[in-house]
Amino acid sequence: MTQCLWSATSSSSTACPRHTRRSFRPGAIYAQEFSRFCNLEREDLILADLADKYGMQINEVSADARAEMAKVAQPAVIKLVAKDIGQMPLTST
Question: Angle CA(9)–CA(32)–CA(38) in degrees, nearest 5?
Fold first, then answer.
């Protein structure tokens, strides 16, 4: 059963029957979203604590700067991930 649960998120896994893998996916997605929500809240609390207790100044990155960083970083990350999983990245024509 442990192997079945561990392999449930892998679409290429044959350790669990397909219907079992399908039943785990919604729970895994919910858990991922809940974890992200908790981490965002925790991050806000940590930043507030750093500012209040230690006087740290927190600099926010603008939306334009984030978009520029993503534009520069995303192609390199896609290439690295594609290499890691053994697939060629899709290219736009």
Answer: 160
